[in-house]
Fold each of these.
Amino acid sequence: GPHRITDVQLENARKTLRKYLGRKKEFLIKVHATWAMTRKPDGTKMGQGKGSIHHFVARVPAGRAMFHVPAMNPFDTFGVVSPTYRAFKVIAGKLPNATRFRSQNNLFPMDRIDLIQKQKAEMEKQVRADAANYWLNRKLPGAFRPT
């Protein structure tokens, strides 16, 4: 099932990100601790109803992106560990589940648009040729095909 990350752990992660990124850089926390966890007082006997709310947790399934830094360029520091990566390593140590850092590169080479269009046209042409060859060369059950 999903991992439970407490509101305190999320707040510590937010403080760590703010410490490493500074005041100007923006980031998103994409999970929120909205699931209430109840607990009975110590020394209470069984029964007597449900306990009161003790803390809140975020239910995070495996593979969910929890933090997002939209204006991060992975190419800004060559050979030096970026503060953003360092922050995520520190946060990973504070969370109860196994974490993985995923970098998404949305940089689009605008000066090579003609080359990209040509490559796309060649790929579509190849796909059409493959589809035509499939229909020509498929083996029908019970049909006679000279070899």
Amino acid sequence: ENAWRMAAEKQLKDVQQKAEELEKAKRDIAEQRKRMDAEQEARIRELELQREKEHARELQRQQDRERERNAELLRKQQLEEDLAVQKSERERDREAIRQQEATVAQLKQRELLIAQKEAAA
């Protein structure tokens, strides 16, 4: 009976040891899973951050292109306005020249009439 009890106690000790080893293995696996999950979460966050940064860069490029387009439109509009002003000034100058030429022609006509009257007198 003593031998039987010793064998049962040894068997009980072995079972308890195996149970402790199994619990330790479970804890190790759970910790390893937690670490892997945390690493995966970190990789996911990093990928999301990279995607957000790329999106922000693309938005910045779009805004830069839009600003450049607007600046080009403003330059074109300014040139068109400048050309319109120059055209208007040239037209005004031409009109002034026509008026001066008409005045000169009238003066010459008067001089000619005066010269004819003096010649006739």
Amino acid sequence: MAPIRVSATVAATPTTIWETCFAPMKWESWDCRAHVKTGARGGLGGLLKADGKVLISAVDDATSKIDYSFELKGLLGSIVAIIKKKECVEGTEGGLANMVKLSEAAQKN
């Protein structure tokens, strides 16, 4: 499976995004499917690997861009990615939308 890539412009600084979504590793706050907080990668040996990458870039003093990609790898990962492509895309888009929502709310406070 090729990585699913999504991006959004956020009315929040990179620091706010990082502190809200990543510094405490609150993955479950923006991705309800995340149950294990072991880092950015997870997997089941070489059979199934999940690779999520987030790049946060400043656009100006009050705005940032989030580039988020997600990919399933390995023998089982490739099969799941084909069978559940819609769910993988929706999950990636939903995770990004939640990062935006949480970060913009935190920036306002």
Amino acid sequence: SDVSFHGETDPKKSLYTVLNVCLPPTEKSSMLLLTLDLQGVACSGGSACSSGATKGSHVLEGIQADPSRPNARFSFSRYTTKEEIDFAIEQLESIYEKVLV
């Protein structure tokens, strides 16, 4: 798979409730977040501190995420269930197979 995860894994040095996922390149990557939203998956592109910014995220640069590939930021809480995570993964797989090819 061409998926990578970014960020510090030591909970003393990171916000363990946030995961950045770098996804396979696709010409239709601009449709990813909208399509996930329409399928009921809440996530964001970039980093929270660069919301609305017109330039790339210094956070994604700092964690060495590839800016040429789509990145999605998922946030979790103690209320997030395994079923919700599985659903998000299933939707990502489906979107890449059917929409973003």
